[in-house]
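JOB MANIFEST
job_type = single_chain_structure
chain_count = 1
residues = 511
[input]
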Amino acid sequence: MTPRPDARALIGRVLDAHSWKSWDEPPVDRASPGSEYAEELAAARARTGYDESVITGEGTLDGRRVAVVACEFSFLAGSIGVAAAERLTRAVERATAEGLPLLAAPASGGTRMQEGALAFTQMVKITAAVAAHRAAGLPYVVYLRHPTTGGVFASWGSLGHVTAAEPGALIGFLGPRVFEALHGYPFPKGVQVSENLFAHGLVDAVVSAEDAREIAIRALAVLCAPRSLVRELSESRLSESRGNPDRGPEPEEADVPVEAWEAITRSRRDDRPGVRSLLKLGASDVTPLNGTGTGESDPGLLLALARFGTAPAVVLGQDRRRQRADGALGPAGLRVARRGMRLASELGLPLVTVIDTAGAALSKAAEEGGLAAEIARSLADLVMLDAPTVCLLLGEGAGGGALALLPADRVVCAQHGWLSPLPPEGASAIVYRTVDFAPEIARSQGVRAADLKRDGIVDRIVPERPDAAYEPAAFCRRVAETLEYEIMDLLGRPPGERLAARFARYRSLGS
């Protein structure tokens, strides 16, 4: 088994070569001279070559300046006392003052027991500094290492915008040795392990130090994308493309309406590209995120960071294929989506929602899990979101599961996308007590892209030639270019103007 890297080795693997600069000053010890604790500190320094359990500083990551805080477990089990907490807090505050993204690599048993309650409450100080860093709109990326437990995991170790974990690492609130000593029997195996946290939506990835570097590079390419410069670059590209007859200053639109039932039938094809195909074929710097961060996940809802051309975005996408295989979209999926909304709001990133669902879950678990309330909260969050928002109706758009991701500044629809209160078969059953009239119901309800645009629900229709299933790569590139164009246009508008226009848009529907 490959030895786990210590703090300095980890930094060397993650940052660009020879870019590390320490910010550390000699710690002020709280141990009384000659005390047993003073002897422990001296022995730890002699044995490890570290002067405290935390090191801080800066370096570059793929050329980008970043701040770093990392624990060293070999120094008194990486425990956090007053001196270590002060070093950590000053580093976070400096990163905030200098506008730097912050990378954190905890590996700690938690509070330093030799310093008691005063050390315990230092977690509040560190958390406050991290919260201020996030409130400043700066990215915070965490890499949980073996082991991370106690107050460290329950404070700054669990606040990342993006969180990865070391393979096989022990990660949990109460250390297993303490649990067994208190209760007289061992903690269940396999619970406090990185891979189990990933399975429960608590971390975004389980990766080695080398792969953590690549994840951080991709994530920061989106999280740190300069919004104003991105718009200028995009406008320059659009200007250069005006001489190309295949692409003018605006994305082309479908001009031939498709019958509603034909669109619905085509949207249900197994080989139709979904949100994962869109990201694979039309986006770059894609970083999948996993779960709510609070113990839930839903395979039918994809959350990721990505770039469409030069445009950065948080992407919330309904994965139709996963919903068919693993179960319809449930309340946990909408809570994953709301995590993405908060991420977009906090970092000022554009949000792209992708609708492609046959409908939300109809089950006892969904009802008791608060599905209706989560739909309502998603609607409210999207309507009030202060970030630019674009919705893509990629395919099926049935029921409240689709409506939950609809409110946006701009709504783009694939030529065979559609939106309906129920699948047409369900609506037919209500009106006629049979599913046989589904095509007629679909036609009368105005569910197809052309009808949605006529009624002001959709702004732009992306053509399919003649069906996305026949041209997946070209279709996904066409959609990605349209998303880039819409995002860039929104980034050029003042936030207050965007929000007022969004309110006006939905207030006027049907008027």
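[summary]
Confidence is low (pLDDT under 50) at residues 241-248.
The two ends are 67 Å apart (CA to CA).
exit_status = 0
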